Amino acid sequence: MPGHDFLLNGDEPGRPTFLLAHGAGAAMDTPCMTLVAERLADRGLRVARFEFAYMADRRTGGPKRPPPKVELLAGEYRAAIDALPHDGPLFIGGKSMGGRVASLIADGMGDRIAGLICLGYPFHPQGKPDKLRTDHLANLQMPTLICQGTRDPFGTREEVAGYALSDRITFHWLEDGDHDLKPCKRVTGLGLDDHLSTAADAIARWTRGA
After folding, report:
1. What is the C-alpha separation between 114 and 130, in angstroms, rounded?
2. Contact 9/35 with Cβ under 8 angstroms?
3. Three-class SS of the chain
4. Predicted TM-score (pTM) of this structure
């Protein structure tokens, strides 16, 4: 992971730190990722965003390649944990793919991390509900919070209800939210910022009790 460059919000001593990884197709400084980081910083967290190498390469004119195998990304996530200074409890996670990668390494980090936070977990590829990415979630021991839209095409509320998942996983459901947690305003009267603020409230409460 070149340079271990972090984008920091709420960078104050003693705060809980949330190491936040991006999804498969969007960089760490997209408007959605920035909003999440800002809302969490407003609620007392220190948020550190980073990019996997394939995404960072795009900034220097590299080809727009898809993400590499998840095992390689897991190694990069561990390297980011090693490189990030923090003096309070550390939570790891991310948006979509970033959260999935963090979930694969969480139990192996021992007492180095306090919990796992996923925003829009990709329980299966879009349009392929039979190709589940849940085997490791059945026996997960790390305290986990998943913020998920009820109509997320990578795992709706109805689909998730049928999965065998660890009792260490807590869900915060966002009504009518899609994979970015965005609701249809015609249905709910709410916008993305509303849902991100609600999710940030839930995350802040959960980190205080984890």
Report:
1. 32
2. no
3. CHHHCCEEECCCCCCCEEEEECCCCCCCCCHHHHHHHHHHHHCCCEEEEECCHHHHHHHCCCCCCCCCCHHHHHHHHHHHHHHCCCCCCEEEEEECHHHHHHHHHHHHHHHHCCEEEEECCCCCCCCCCCCCCCHHHCCCCCCEEEEEECCCCCCCHHHHCCCCCCCCEEEEEECCCCCCCCCCHHHHCCCHHHHHHHHHHHHHHHHHHC
4. 0.95
The CATH number given to whatever domain includes residue 205 is 3.40.50.1820
Of 24, 42, 196, residue with least CA distance to 119: 196
For tokens 């997209």, name the residue.
Answer: 30
pLDDT digits (tens, 9 = 90+) for 88-99: 999 999 999 999
The residues facing 93 across adjacent strands are 20, 117
Q: How many domains would you assign to the chain?
A: 1
pLDDT, position 152:
98
- Reference 200, options 176, 165, 174; nearest CA is 174
Domain containing residue 86: 2-209
pLDDT in tens, 135-186: 999 999 999 999 999 999 999 999 999 999 999 999 999 999 999 999 998 8
Q: Residue 148's CB: how many other CB atoms inside 10 A? A: 24
